[in-house]
Amino acid sequence: MNIHIIGIAGKTSAALAKMLIDEGHIVTGSDQGCYPPMTDFLDEIGVSYQTPYDEANMPDDTDELVVAGNALIVNPNNPEYLKAKEMGLPIKSYPEVLGDFLIKDNSIVVVGNYGKGTVSGAFVKALTDLDKNPSYMVGGLLEDFTQNVVASNSDWSVVEGDEYPVPPIGDSKPRSKFFYYKPKYVVLTSAEWDHFDKFPSEREYIENYVELVKDLPQDGLLVANYDGENVMEVVKHASCRVVTYSLINPHADYVADEIGFQPTLLGRFNLSNLTGAYAMLAELGFDNQRLLHSLNHYRGLKQRMTVLHEDENVVVVRDLAHSPIKAKSAVAAAKETWPNYRIVAVLDIYSSSLKNRNVLPRLSGSLSDADLVLIPKVTLSKSLDENVRITGKEIVDAVKETQPNVKYLPKHDDLVAAIKSYPKPKVVLLMSSGSMQSIEEEILKEI
């Protein structure tokens, strides 16, 4: 089959192209812009791609169009999309294609507003070590594997189930990606309100998870984080068996400190993530000792508490943290790991959720354990209504309610200078779902 992908330059869409090629399909693609390292990867796997979007990019012998990333959010009248409609081609979203090619009878889907990628990767590592050769899709880059999207011939699949809705194609309605993955087994890490632009109220956000667990088959299994916000409200709607896990709560079925973990991953929050994966696979009958050995050697995802440099004076850590709870967990992990170091937390307000006014109450208290908090320049998000946009000053004021040592430094040089001048020993914790490469490079070259 000849498949054309618009929005091909993203990490997951490029990985999807690789998977389709491995399955024997011919793949072409396009994007508004395409830059290294994605261009290098696409060249390596033999994909013909064009920029920018233009109806001429799509070959006449195309059999199916795949819409990936935010191509239709940016421009609902994408010329290649309109051409495909004129030609009467099947048009599918990214998660629909995963559902077609990757999902197996034993479908494990990890959902929740944090920890999805890490737990999904833990399943991939464990099931691989347990000789199950799973198909999988993980949004981040795995330290233990070279690919993050793989279709295999086993009857197991693992998917990171994003709750962010898929842009509507044709007359379809927006639906969270996780609905496309036909889960039999689900891990729910948390249902703390997130993605305010798509779920205007907390109730709407919770009900989305309720709908998911209602659809689980009776012979399925829901493994739920006892400590996760709103989780117990969601799980009471499940018709399948429910098992709980927790860091320390004795009322949970699986308690992290009772399992015997000696993990490679940093932070108590990652111990919780490992417990979720352990609970599911233990309940499904896998050998506990082999499972524990595998999870203890799991190295996680890139840019999740990744140590870029460490010596007796300075530690530099990169983390994806793009919500208050993730930032709080990252700071806590840094303090646990380096208790005698000062923590300089740099939180980049990059994701749309962090730029939404609803996040302000949650920012208060999220960075109180740091010694210094620095907020880089906050850029305007045109996708947000003016009434929910926030400024750098408002973010600082919210953080300042529990953390007086916070500064808004919109100028790059001032930010780097503040990081460098802070007394040692220190941990520089760089948190962003975007790129912080220039800051990383300047800090590292001075060490």
Number of strands: 21
Shape: globular
| Number of discrete helical segments | 15
CATH superfamily of the largest domain: Mur-like, catalytic domain
CATH topology of the largest domain: UDP-N-acetylmuramoyl-L-alanine:D-glutamate ligase
Sketch the major β-sheet.
8 strands, mixed
Pfam family, one: Mur_ligase_C
Organism: candidate division WWE3 bacterium
InterPro entries: Mur-like_cat_sf, Mur_ligase_C, Mur_ligase_C_dom_sf, Mur_ligase_cen, Mur_ligase_N, MurCDEF_pg_biosynth
GO molecular function, one term: ATP binding
Please characterize this protein's 3D structure.
It holds the Pfam family Mur_ligase_M. One of its GO terms (biological process) is regulation of cell shape. This is Mur ligase central domain-containing protein. InterPro entries: Mur-like_cat_sf (IPR036565), Mur_ligase_C (IPR004101), Mur_ligase_C_dom_sf (IPR036615), Mur_ligase_cen (IPR013221), Mur_ligase_N (IPR000713), MurCDEF_pg_biosynth (IPR050061). GO terms for molecular function: acid-amino acid ligase activity; ATP binding. Helix content is 32%, strand content 19%. The protein is an alpha/beta fold and 447 residues long. The chain folds into 3 domains: 91 residues, NAD(P)-binding Rossmann-like Domain (Rossmann fold), CATH 3.40.50; 195 residues, 3-Layer(aba) Sandwich (UDP-N-acetylmuramoyl-L-alanine:D-glutamate ligase); 141 residues, Mur ligase, C-terminal domain (Protein-Tyrosine Phosphatase, Chain A), CATH 3.90.190.20. Helix 7 links the parallel strand 12 and strand 13. Helix 1 runs parallel beside helix 2 and helix 6 packs across helix 9. It is globular. The model has no long low-confidence stretch (mean pLDDT 92).
